Amino acid sequence: MQKQFKKEQEKWLSQIDLNNHFQPNDLKLVAGVDLAYWSKDGKEYGVCCIVIIDYITHAIVEKVNYYGEITVPYISGFLAFRELPLILKAAEKLSIEPDLYMFDGNGYLHARHMGIATHASFYLDKPTIGVAKSYLKIDNVELKEPKNEFGAFEFIQTEDEIYGLVLRTRKDVKPIFVSCGNWIDLETAKDITLHFVNKNSRLPITTRFADLETHAIREKLTSNQ
C-alpha cells in the first residue's frame, strides 16, 4: 500500500508550483477544511466539513459536510489517502465555488512535499494552504521559535530549500505551522493566514470554524447511534 501511495505522490511532485496563480487582491471566498473521526463496532468513520468564509467580512457564506467509513489506515506521511475521499465528496456538495482552500494540516511542509493541502489541490483544482497545529519533523530540522509578537515567523528549512514557516499569530500563545499547498507562494500563504486570525484563537477562522463544525457534526452523528 505504501509503495502505491508513494508512487502517486511522486506523480504529482513535478506539478507543484509555489507561485501565485491568482491575484491576492481578487480573493473573495476562502474555504476551510477539516475532518474528525470516531469508531463504532470495530469500524472507523470520519466527517469532513468545509466552511466558506467571505474574505472581506469574515462572514460564513456556506457550510457542507460529508461522512462515511474510513477504509485507509493511518500511515505517517500518507494522510491524504485517508482523508481525500471524504474531502472530495464534501466539496461536491458546495453550491458556491471558493477561490482558495485552507486545510487543517500540512502542504509543502512534508517529507515528500505532498501533505493533504498539496495533494488535494490537484483534485480540487484550486490554490491551497496548509495550516497545522503541530510540527512533523523534516530531516531532523529543529524549530527556531519566532519572536513573541503577532506576525513573527521563522522559516522551516533544510540546507537546500524552505518547506514552510512557523508563525506566531498571538502573543504568549503557541505558534502554528504554515506551508504552501499549491499555486501560491509562501508569503501570500502567510498573509492570508494572518488575515483570518482574530482575538479568539491562534488559528485562522477558516480552519477553526471547520474544526468546530466537524466536532458538532460528529457529536450529532454519534449521539444518534
UniProtKB/TrEMBL annotation:
<keyword id="KW-0378">Hydrolase</keyword>
<feature type="binding site">
    <location>
        <position position="34"/>
    </location>
    <ligand>
        <name>Mg(2+)</name>
    </ligand>
</feature>
<feature type="site" description="Interaction with target DNA">
    <location>
        <position position="74"/>
    </location>
</feature>
<keyword id="KW-0963">Cytoplasm</keyword>
<keyword id="KW-0255">Endonuclease</keyword>
<comment type="function">
    <text>DNA repair enzyme involved in the repair of deaminated bases. Selectively cleaves double-stranded DNA at the second phosphodiester bond 3' to a deoxyinosine leaving behind the intact lesion on the nicked DNA.</text>
</comment>
<keyword id="KW-0234">DNA repair</keyword>
<dbReference type="GO" id="GO:0004519">
    <property type="term" value="F:endonuclease activity"/>
</dbReference>
<protein>
    <recommendedName>
        <fullName>Endonuclease V</fullName>
        <ecNumber>3.1.21.7</ecNumber>
    </recommendedName>
</protein>
<dbReference type="InterPro" id="IPR007581">
    <property type="entry name" value="Endonuclease-V"/>
</dbReference>
<keyword id="KW-0479">Metal-binding</keyword>
<comment type="similarity">
    <text>Belongs to the endonuclease V family.</text>
</comment>
<feature type="binding site">
    <location>
        <position position="104"/>
    </location>
    <ligand>
        <name>Mg(2+)</name>
    </ligand>
</feature>
<dbReference type="Pfam" id="PF04493">
    <property type="entry name" value="Endonuclease_5"/>
</dbReference>
<keyword id="KW-0460">Magnesium</keyword>
<keyword id="KW-0227">DNA damage</keyword>
<keyword id="KW-0540">Nuclease</keyword>
